[in-house]
Amino acid sequence: MLPPLPSLQAFEAIARRRSFALAAAELYLTPSAVSHQVARLESFLGVKLFERSSRGVKLSPAGEVYLQRVAGALGAISAATDDLRQGVRNTLYVHASPSFASLWLMPRIGQFAQAHPGVSLFLSASHLHSDFELGQVDIDIRYGVPDWPGLVVKPVFRETILPLASADFIERHQIRTPADLMQVPLIQSTVGVIQWSDWFAVHSPLKKPERFALRFDRALMALDAAVQGLGVALESAVIGRSYLESGKLQAVFDPSWALPVQAHFVVYPERHGYRSEVAQFLAWLANQVDEDA
């Protein structure tokens, strides 16, 4: 059983705008009509979706969970409708982890557009993995340990993780050995597959950091902090390539001290692999990785 579409639209608009009045204006309805649609949906589901107070409206715990599922589905319907109305037939939806999208994919995406002018590419980025059951994403480029059963999982590239800092920071603090790192601010990427404790376990087993000057959940922010001279970041030479080539950052030690890892993966349902747009993107991606290598 599917709930009424107008009720779903009203629910999503209120949840996004945090206001019955603003949602009503967006949907060209009266506030009372929007309220009626929500009441209809709550009656259909048997749960309260919103908590109302003098300070406004907010989602209930059940509403939060429901929004996470239906917002993507409504977005997929909207995107498919727009594509069809505008005559777009070859749309490709790619989702990627934020730092990969910003630092590796975006500098190259123009080449894909030139090579495949017939493909309309939609790129999104977030730390959340795509839910393919919603039908909104064709390919997901994920970061982490590959444990995604039921999906095709292919490594993007093999990368190396190593301490990076600005040349001025290295010289100012006279960093020459791993032990010297214990005397300077260290920057931690909290979501990194390789952590400082892993690096020290290999290169300085008697020492490991117990505190960090700064913590970030994005490689991009950790790299920018290192550029500002705020400390030493432990990051990927592949993801941080533009920083290294520009001279904004450099390897603190010999590159042979880096730790190898495969942490970026192309993920998609097997059925998606038969789409020509998906095949073209995967071939282009593999070619880009080969050229970099």
Characteristic terms for this protein:
single chain; 293 residues; alpha/beta; Arc Repressor Mutant, subunit A; D-Maltodextrin-Binding Protein, domain 2; 3 domains; six-stranded mixed beta sheet; five-stranded mixed beta sheet; globular
Task: Characterize the structure shown.
By secondary structure, the protein is an alpha/beta fold. The chain has 3 domains: 5-85, Arc Repressor Mutant, subunit A (Orthogonal Bundle); 91-157 and 263-292, D-Maltodextrin-Binding Protein, domain 2 (3-Layer(aba) Sandwich), CATH 3.40.190; 159-261, D-Maltodextrin-Binding Protein, domain 2, CATH 3.40.190.10. Helices cover 43% and strands 20% of the residues. The chain is built from 10 helices and 13 strands. The protein has helices at 5-17, 20-27, 31-45, 61-85, 98-115, 167-172, 196-203, 219-227, 241-246, 276-292; strands at residues 50-53, 56-59, 91-96, 120-125, 139-143, 152-155, 159-165, 186-189, 214-216, 232-236, 250-251, 259-261, 264-268. Strands 7, 8, 9, 10, 11 and 12 form a 6-stranded mixed β-sheet that branches. Helix 7 (196-203) links the parallel strand 8 and strand 9 (214-216). The longest helix is centred in the N-terminal third of the chain and has 25 residues, at 61-85. It is globular and about 70 Å long. The mean pLDDT is 89.
Structural class: alpha/beta
Count of runs of 4 or more consecutive helical residues: 10
Mean pLDDT level: 89
Range of strand content: 15-25%
Q: Regions with pLDDT < 50 over 5+ consecutive residues?
A: none
Supply the CATH superfamily name of the largest domain: Periplasmic binding protein-like II
Assigned CATH class of the largest domain: Alpha Beta
Gross morphology is globular
Percent in helix: 40-55%
Return the string of H and E elements: HHHEEHEHEEEEHEHEHEHEEEH
C-alpha termini separation: 52 Å
The tally of strands reads 13
For the record, the CATH architecture of the largest domain stands as 3-Layer(aba) Sandwich
Q: How many domains is the backbone divided into?
A: 3
CATH topology of the largest domain: D-Maltodextrin-Binding Protein, domain 2
What Rg, in angstroms, do the CA atoms define?
24 Å
Main beta sheet, described?
Answer: 6 strands, mixed
